[in-house]
């Protein structure tokens, strides 16, 4: 049975081997069959069952099948043994069911039950429990018709009260006759309909309350009982629908303002049982036709305010669930998930349900869904404990267990949206800065909630979408994740593994923009983590990419020697152009000579010659500009920019720019690989190159509209 191997030993002793994977089950099954000399392609190899199934179709329906013992008190143990012994054999179950049906045996057994109960014959009552339970497991609709008739059903319930495993019998009949009350909101005049409602309620009670949860061997034994209940409900609904007065009377009372509150409470209002019933009805509708529900709510949006839209009412019921375990909220979340799942949305030539409904949902409902998340991660809801001598603030979300569970449910639904929706959820996340708010929950005292927040970010990164990647890097959104990893310390737990898996995914998938951001900003904090090679691997990927970029730059100077390559007609800003002089003997140090710049010159070779004329005279000044190591362990560079001597302002308009570089980015080997040997004239121990540094993001936009890009070179 896929991942199960089931067999019987002796008459009433079943065993099973359960496997996690079907492949493992198949492997062991083949070895068992090899030892037994059986064909592994046959699902059932047990000799008894195999021989019985070969003859099941040949069995005459009216032939005497099983000789039943006489229905007497002293035969109850024998009858119980017979009933329980046939359950493992399909053919014997069929034979026993026919025998019970033909001889009217069930009514005789129930008469014996009344005798045993009057005599307080406990042993006989225990045998009758086993007999009636076994007859239910025969799974025959014809027997159910007898057992669940008005004449027999309460005695059947009575037999099932005497479970031998219980010290005292249950009082199911007392509950059904005295506690459970049948209330008619609108009087039901059809006696057949009333009888069907009573029967269905009692049979449902037997299945849900009285009978124990079936084992793996018994799970199919009650399939006919489930069908019996289902078809009863179909009949009830059909009979109500055919009643010309019933439904019209219900809606008339609902809409009548004169109907008092007590009467309305029987029809609706804020009652837990009514809410549960309404949730069940809504779940049936969604499972039956999610498209029909979506069509209704979109039509409703044209006539109603957002607050009373059906979807928003469902979301509010989910948010306001008073159950500590949020049982109702979990059910409603599953229904919402079904409604927003694109897999069950229709697409036709004239109409696309997906785009229409998702537009509706994100415009009218998403703000209701995310309201608790945004409220619990706002600045005034979080406590910030400043750490003395540290720039980091410890943000703690004030979430109790029930709130944490609710936020976890909301995050689960939002994670589903990230996976299955495209630009709708992307626009919402970026417009609301939603990921930043979600990552506040990384500080929750509830680890399951922190993992939900991390899972949300992991799904976003898993898309490998550069829009998301830029949003993450510009917002510095790795910081709360790395802080959570560092705060977790040396504990080897699920949070630790999940964070490392996130960074390992980035490394394996070689997401360059994220790798560069992580290494340049966080490597100093992460390089001490050596029990995995993830972070060293990120550094290696980063350096390899830098080397590749530098090799590309080395091919640019050959183009510069051609007169065809000319600068854009726009003049560069004064502080966008720099000349570097790199000393090969002192790694990480650079000197910057004054730049010869003429705003009227378009020809790069001409400006380069003018620069070389002033370079030699300035070599002695260059040594004064050597970088000094800062307290943070990096290097502080001071770049001098001098105006062209041609304009008579030699050094007068010079300005200095300070840049801080981290050890991760001041790699000596990478600096050497960036030398432009063919592009510039080298002096002893130094190289010179042109670098274009844009002041702000507007430069990037200007470049995209420019007919010809400016040269960008680096040393």
From TrEMBL:
Pfam families per UniProt: EVH1_PP4R3 (PF22972), PP4R3 (PF04802)
Residues in Serine/threonine-protein phosphatase 4 regulatory subunit 3-like central domain copies: 267-544
Segments of skewed composition (Polar residues): 672-684
Region described as Disordered: spans on this chain: 577-715
Domain of life from the UniProt record: Eukaryota
Biased composition (Basic and acidic residues): 596-627
Compositionally biased region (Acidic residues): 577-589, 693-704
Cellular component, GO annotation: nucleoplasm; protein phosphatase 4 complex
Biased composition (Low complexity): 640-671
BP terms from Gene Ontology: DNA damage response
An example molecular function term from Gene Ontology annotations: protein phosphatase activator activity
Domain PP4R3 EVH1-like: 1-36
Cited Gene3D superfamilies: Pleckstrin-homology domain (PH domain)/Phosphotyrosine-binding domain (PTB) (2.30.29.30)
Spans through the membrane: none
Recorded family membership: Belongs to the SMEK family.
PANTHER family: ATP SYNTHASE GAMMA-RELATED, SERINE_THREONINE-PROTEIN PHOSPHATASE 4 REGULATORY SUBUNIT 3B
Name assigned to this protein: Serine/threonine-protein phosphatase 4 regulatory subunit 3B
Species this chain originates from: Charadrius vociferus
